[in-house]
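Hi R.,

Here's the input for the zinc ion complex you asked about:
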Amino acid sequence: MNSILNVEKDTDKVISKFSSLLEHCDSCLTDLISEIETLQFDLSQSNAPNDVLPTTNSFSMLNHVIKKVQDVSSQLAKEHRDFHSTVSRVGKAIDKNFNSDYGAMENRLLWSDDESKTILNRVIIEHFMRKGMLDIVDSLVTDAGLEMLEEEKKPFTELNQILISLRKRDLKPALDWVEINREKLIQQNSSLEFKLHRLQFIEYLCKGVEKQSELIAFARTKLQPLVDRHAKEIQALMGSLLYLKTGLENSPYAYLLDILNWSEICDVFIRDSCCLMGMSVDSPLNIAFEAGTVAFPALLNIRQMMSQRRVASVWTAKDELPIVIDLDKKFQFHSIFACPILRQQASDVNPPMRLDCGHVISRDALTKMSNGSTKVKCPYCPVEQNPQIAKQIFF
Ligand SMILES: [Zn+2]
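And here is the predicted structure with zinc ion in place:
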């Protein structure tokens, strides 16, 4: 982040210098043009039409203007050169603040086998499917030699079309989708259906008194069935009817007209439909990329330090990083266990083990403590027990 701010400072300098240069250049040229125009006019006035040689007076005027043009152009050229040095300072700031040598971080082995390549391609394809960029998906499937059934694409295509309609304030496709998936949506406690109907209600509300009977009929058929879960909100909608004549804009219900309701509905739809399909809201590729950008500088640093001190072998475990990197909460998807004895995070090779007494330590700690014996003392309670009884815990 600091690197970006450092470069930004120099870039800001370039931008402000450029605008002042532009301004100055413009005013200089305008002055020059008006001076030449005046000269042109003066010359045409002072010389009689048949005079071939200009008068001494015209000569001095001409010389004066020529000198001025030369002065101004050399001054502008100098300013332009100065500006160049400011621009090149940005390049130097980028070189200074960012590391361009990522070679050390590359792990070619990771993508060397066909299975990994296929998985990576599938993750990329899924990302584009979520974005609704189906033409890219098709090209990628062909290029990567993968097979993709229409069935796999269908839910993404459908959801994207609904989203496009929602952004155009067309609720119908979303409502149709809700109709088909109502049961599952209720199970996951979704308020999508209510929110869609509420927007529809507000749309009618905006049309004023002549839509009153439609509004009431709509409330009876669509809102009433939802009253169990959304009583308070439906009461508010009914209350807004009082202002149908005078307009909602100046009423306590003006918040119903907020256009943010429309962007909110898109978010709710994405969240609930992804949940229904058992998918995360963000694509795994996006999450991996974001987490990578946070972790990358720290990893790059440690990698460089390791190669300088010739301890590259420390970072050998495939699934483990040599340092703990604090990612934001949104990147944490499951619980982790750190062994209280070895002070290490549990992994596939060193999983957490639940002792007979209920305390949990890592398998390596248990092996070290028992040291082949059939009796081990729990470091916490300390009940003596058979280490064989300990059970592995899966998160
Ligand atoms: Zn214990």
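One thing worth noting: The beta strands are 352-354, 360-362, 376-377, 384-385, 391-392.

Cheers,
M.
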